[in-house]
Recover the amino acids of this structure.
């Protein structure tokens, strides 16, 4: 939290596993919420591991899905976090119903579920088009969409898939770059700082701005080479890469925002 604050970030995505570890060590949700407030950071999103939160397929267990969702939403609300990220698995026929059930739980807690793309995984939600259809089918304001630039690229989504997107359906946009390698070679370990790879991030941000999206942007990177930088240096580099991207957008559009 101190690293994020010192780098100039205003909010922080939190991994559910690390939050659970803090609770197991005797801290409370109120303690975590107070620490965030002291650091001047908003809790932006509670997310699980990169693999599906709950794989939906032959072994789909609706009761387990709801129980997991309740636990995540209770933790999120307890730290003042409005959004729980959802990775859903391989059976496309079950995804919409699962999201409807998760949305109902989230609404009871005053939270929101954000469906994530998984372009480089064996997921039914590999493209923006697929994600839009599923979120629309869920028909619930408590369910929205998280767009991750890296996953958008890995799943071969097109810019046309963003046309007409309702900006209120967008919960969060993550910006990470990717190396110029075949898409089926990409893994989570290839997530680069914005500007260090081959994704046209400026085009993405310009399109979302044109749609009227005014929500948060975050950055998540995981390149093994970054580990040697140290957390403070990496956080500063991430903040500077975002600042450069939006400065370029402002310059192109003749504005300063």
């Amino acid at each position: 939290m101190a690293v994020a604050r010192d780098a100039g970030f205003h909010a922080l995505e939190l991994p559910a596993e690390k939050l659970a570890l803090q609770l197991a060590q005797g801290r409370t949700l109120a303690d975590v919420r107070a620490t965030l407030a002291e650091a001047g950071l908003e809790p932006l999103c509670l997310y699980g591991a990169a693999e599906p939160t709950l794989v939906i397929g032959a072994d789909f267990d609706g009761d387990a899905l709801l129980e997991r969702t309740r636990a995540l939403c209770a933790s999120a609300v307890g730290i003042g976090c409005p959004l729980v990220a959802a990775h859903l698995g391989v059976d496309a026929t079950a995804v919409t119903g699962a999201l409807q059930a998760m949305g109902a739980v989230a609404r009871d807690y005053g939270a929101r579920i954000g469906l994530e793309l998984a372009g480089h995984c064996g997921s039914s939600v590999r493209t923006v088009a697929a994600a839009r259809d599923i979120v629309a089918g869920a028909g619930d304001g408590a369910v929205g969409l998280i767009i991750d630039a890296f996953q958008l690229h890995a799943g071969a989504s097109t810019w046309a898939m963003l046309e007409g997107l309702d900006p209120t359906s967008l919960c969060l946009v993550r910006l990470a770059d990717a190396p110029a390698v075949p898409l089926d070679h990409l893994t989570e370990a290839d997530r680069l700082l914005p500007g260090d790879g081959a994704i046209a991030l400026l085009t993405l941000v310009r399109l979302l701005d044109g749609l009227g999206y005014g929500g948060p942007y975050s950055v998540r990177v995981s390149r093994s080479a970054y580990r040697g930088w140290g957390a403070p240096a990496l956080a500063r580099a991430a903040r500077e890469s975002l600042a450069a991207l939006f400065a370029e957008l402002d310059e192109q559009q003749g504005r300063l925002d």
